[in-house]
Amino acid sequence: MERASEGRVCDVLVVGSGAGGLATAITAKKYGLSVIVIEKEAVFGGTTAFSGGVLWIPGNRHGRTNNPGDTREAARRYMAAETGNWFQPEAVDAYLAEGPRMLDWFEKETAVQFVPTLYPDYHPTMDGGVDVGRSVLAAPFDTSALGADLKRLRPPLSTITFMGMMFNSSNADIKHFFNATKSPVSFAYVLKRLVAHAGEVVRHGRGVQVTSGNALAARLAKSCLDLGIPILTETPAMHLVKADGRVIGVDIGGKNPGRITARRGVVLACGGYAHDLARRAEAYAHLKAGGGHFSPVPEAITGDGIRLGEEAGAAFDAEYPQPAAWMPVSRVPGKGVFPHLLDRYKPGMIAVLSNGRRFTNESESYHDVGAAMVASGEAAAWLICDHRTIRKYGLGHAKPAPMPLWLWLRSGYLKKGRTLAELARACGIDTQGLEETVSTFNRGAREGRDEAFHRGETSFNRYLADPDHKPNPAVAPVEQGPFYAVRMEMGDLGTFDGLKTTVPGEVLDRQGTVIPGLYAVGNDRASIMGGNYPGAGITLGPAMTFGWITGRHLAGVAQETDSKTDNRERAS
Q1: Residues 6 or more apart from 238 whose CB is under 8 A from it?
Q2: pLDDT at 183
Q3: Strand pairing class (514-520; 258-268)
Q4: What is the residue-wise DSSP string for 356-392?
Q5: DSSP 81-127
Q6: pLDDT digits (tens, 9 = 90+) for 64-81
């Protein structure tokens, strides 16, 4: 296991090993700088390794195949509409110009590869929104290519794997597993996957065919290691070192404490503050109101980069209306936190508050549903379905047929009632409210309509639903008992508030002056999304794009946004 030693010197020191940090490190190294990455945990990959591995990059070459009519102007209008008063024109213009170039550069120069997706923007009916073409996904990866470093790759979030196997959220794998007991083709496919996975576990101690964010983290790490960039794990950054007003390095702790000097700059890439309990208690409205919060983000994401920046005089303010990317989660006894990424979209699912009333369109994005939970004043809700629906799609961590339900029922994770009234009593939901809600919902749902929240009327609502369910892939009645429920609570996928920076990532102090030698990328840098969530991949897209911009800036390479090129691309 590689650890730091006393007195090391490099051009660029990156603190953190998520997508933003590794993108910066790879870029700086490719342009001739010496680079060291330090990571306080024993594993690398950060929150990226837990994520969906999707990047929102308007104008990318993969997306142009599916949507050749999309333009940068349309994406800019969409960003302006989504961010409102928090629109940052200079940063947004740089992001939209450099994002596609970043993607092409990484695919040409490194082991990082992407595949297209059919994801719509999350609000496709907004000005500039599109139904397809802006989100790409990390290509699957065989992590055995990491060799001995495989043991240092953060495993995927266990609650969203099946026996350790990974699936992309929109992958055909999931459909095969849903249909394994109904289709010989799907049964054969699932059997083949299970046998292959068992072989991987025997040979490597874990599954090595990974997808989503685990694939992206692995590809970025492989690219770093191929370039000879050391990733020093179990090496926490304790304090920044300054001389003559400039940040010149970091004092490190761990088993080999010492100092690493950086001639060009120190890059903070510690992933934000999702588990900084004191900071989020000040920023999260539902915590101030006495609610709970259960983040699936790695527990080591405790705001280290922001703390280090503040010690050097950096400006941090929790100012966005929504300070984090909200994710409804449920707590699985003995296993951790389950993020509700897919089940909410399926027909036959509804979410209600303790009064038994629906409060939002369940098929909107996780962030929008989470924001609605916060706005409800409860910061929690019950996701409810009938027997037919749970056996077809599962519910939360409870899996569809043929997996039995008794384990989740026995643990108390899953609630059950022969009637809606019995379910309401088991959950502490108002009985009359629930019965009236379901009755009203079912009247329209039998014809594929959601008169209250218009569920299934946008391309995004339909994208993760069931295309085989007619007439509305996102709507079906809740009517065949017994009935089931899972309690959803507030979580997040990472924080939006971060350190103030210039476009190239130079950290600013409270007077708006650059702190020489100090940079921030990823969730340590304030998000350009203004506390909103426009589409799949709006965290990783900016993380890698601005990581690339920061790496080039450190190497003295100017942005390629001259007016001639910019005008030519705007016309395309």
Answers
A1: 250, 251, 252, 253, 257
A2: 74
A3: parallel
A4: S-B-S-TTS-HHHHHHHHHHTTSSEEEEEEEHHHHHH
A5: HHHGGG--HHHHHHHHHHHHHHHHHHHHHSS--EEE--PPBSSTTST
A6: 999 999 999 999 999 999
